[in-house]
Design a protein that fits this description.
Chain lengths: ~80, ~220
């Protein structure tokens, strides 16, 4: 069994009001480390056995078609050990 | 004239959309998301609501519903198709219209009466209006900020494909105050505010919204 992780983030030029709200909440709790926060989505996909190149290519296609909206988001695909 | 109104799980405004069709003098036909059957309708409305609970992204799951396959083919062939609010989000996810609808810039869910100007009147859904006409209809959404890249924005402006803009302060952060757009052919329109809630001054802020529904009936007679 392996886990494939797809991270989806808004493109840098797209305003992220949720990330901004989180960034504004941090100082209220006394945390002063953040100059910026961006919020995204993480998908954990479980498959049987080790992923093949063909399966990873399929995950890429699924990430492009369904998991992300290429108009506003970027994604990355990786296999988690 | 038969106008289909699609119901997805989580759709809210299908009844008001059907009522608006009847007010305008058309016959409203209920279409079900899980049936790949347009029941011989002449035009279709994707109404507002929270289809699939807005899971993943607004409209992202509805966009792959069985009804969408014949609907996309028909709309690409010229059948009039109007997406209101969540329906606009579905049209954007289906790439029938460019761009995307994202979280309102102040994060608030807005529910208020909103002034718009109608900028394009040669579409299937806006011919009953006059160019520059101001209308007042409800706006209610959490993810209504219209976003697209600079190139797409220049294309929409250059080709005059913005059908309506917000008047006054930008309510949600939409680029260039965009409230609604159309495709090149003018048969597909996406609109964030809700004309179907403003067809009678007894139940809405005005009766301005009826124009979208009378327009399509006129377009089909032609």
């Amino acid at each position: 069994m392996a886990k494939i992780v797809v991270d989806v983030m808004l493109k840098p030029e797209i305003l992220d009001p949720q990330g901004k709200a989180v960034a504004a909440a941090l100082p209220r709790l006394g945390f002063s480390f953040a100059t910026d926060v961006r919020q995204g989505k993480r998908f954990e996909i479980t498959i049987d056995g080790e992923p093949t190149a063909a399966q990873l290519a399929e995950v890429e296609t699924a990430a492009e078609k369904l998991l992300s909206n290429p108009v506003i988001e970027n994604f990355t695909v990786r296999v988690e050990k | 004239m038969k106008i289909g109104v699609v119901t997805f799980p989580g759709t809210l405004d299908d009844r008001d959309a059907a009522r608006a069709v009847r007010y305008a003098g058309g016959e409203a036909v209920s279409l079900w998301h899980d049936d790949a059957d347009l029941k011989g309708v002449d035009a279709v409305i994707l109404p507002g609501g929270f289809s699939y609970g807005d899971y993943l992204r607004c409209g992202a799951i509805s966009r792959f519903s069985p009804v969408m396959e014949p609907l996309i083919a028909a709309a690409q062939g010229g059948m009039p198709l109007l997406g209101i609010c969540n329906g606009f989000q579905v049209l954007a996810e289906a790439h029938l219209l460019p761009g995307a609808l994202t979280r309102n810039h102040e994060l608030h869910f807005l529910c208020r009466d909103q002034k718009l100007t109608i900028e394009k009147t040669d579409t299937a859904w806006t011919s009953s209006f006059s160019k520059g006409q101001e209308i007042l209809i409800p706006l209610k959404n959490g993810e209504g900020a219209y976003m697209c890249d600079d190139q797409t924005l220049a294309m929409l402006e250059g080709e005059g494909r913005i059908i309506a803009r917000y008047v006054g302060e930008n309510p949600n952060g939409s680029r260039n105050l965009i409230a609604g757009i159309t495709n090149e052919r003018g048969n597909i329109v996406g609109l964030m505010p809700h004309p179907e809630h403003a067809i009678d001054s007894l139940t809405g802020p005005s009766a301005d919204g009826i124009g979208f529904f009378t327009s399509v009936l006129k377009a089909m007679v032609k």
